[in-house]
């Protein structure tokens, strides 16, 4: 799944056409009448988490004023190509993605052989972007205090970190790397974290996501990652790989049992104390994991396609 840093890069790529008019359109979306964009000028672009917003308006000199906002969400397989369409490839990874969505959802032509092609995304027309800048992990306005409080719920941290309402832009890579950096077990309940540990995790999320933007994509130079898709952690321990989480937040997760043990951290808030009472506070890490809570089972799923774990 594209994560915030990747979508931000795509926003920069798409931004090269700002100020240009849409000549014609293509794509198989049924959600938006793309023809209405023809002749309109691409005047603004915003990226928030995994969403991209594009604004199209009439020329200021025109007699009538039209303003259209499109919202793209790239989902699990979405991608953006500039001045090129996807072509068949022998790579298993490509085949997996090709099967998911062989046709571009949206194509916006700005000139001969100058276009943006959106694949595998959902697109819709909206009034205007609704953005809470305090939830975007890539922005300086990201609210660390609020996010720290959000984390201290009776849910596994691997689940909470993927909640875009508070951690917009965080995907599976950021999640796994931040958890390793904070030495936290993915199934640790947020309610058992001390405020200091929760803050450490929130800061690790922001640090990794911003470093990703600064250094480029971590997909190919995997050497820069500590735990994601690794067989051994940086200290040489065997990495465990399993599907963890629940419902829409179930993802293949990587962790080191030695570096990231389940911690019986004493909670300090009233809410967390209630949680501790329910779990008796004496359980070993194994018990906590096994009996955890029927609401948050370890979900075991088969991979749907070759290479899908790279984008889970
Ligand atoms: Zn380790």
From TrEMBL:
InterPro entries, A to Z: FPG_cat, FPG_N, H2TH_FPG, Ribosomal_uS13-like_H2TH
Transmembrane intervals: none
UniProt keyword Lyase, yes or no: yes
GO BP term, pick one: base-excision repair
Entry GO terms, CC: nucleus
Reaction it catalyzes: Hydrolysis of DNA containing ring-opened 7-methylguanine residues, releasing 2,6-diamino-4-hydroxy-5-(N-methyl)formamidopyrimidine
The keyword Transcription appears for this protein: no
GO molecular function: damaged DNA binding; DNA-(apurinic or apyrimidinic site) endonuclease activity; lyase activity; oxidized purine nucleobase lesion DNA N-glycosylase activity; zinc ion binding
Alphabetized PANTHER family for the sequence: FORMAMIDOPYRIMIDINE-DNA GLYCOSYLASE (PTHR22993)
Family per similarity comment: Belongs to the FPG family.
UniProt name for this protein: NEIL2 protein
Organism encoding this protein: Branchiostoma lanceolatum
Name of the encoding gene: NEIL2
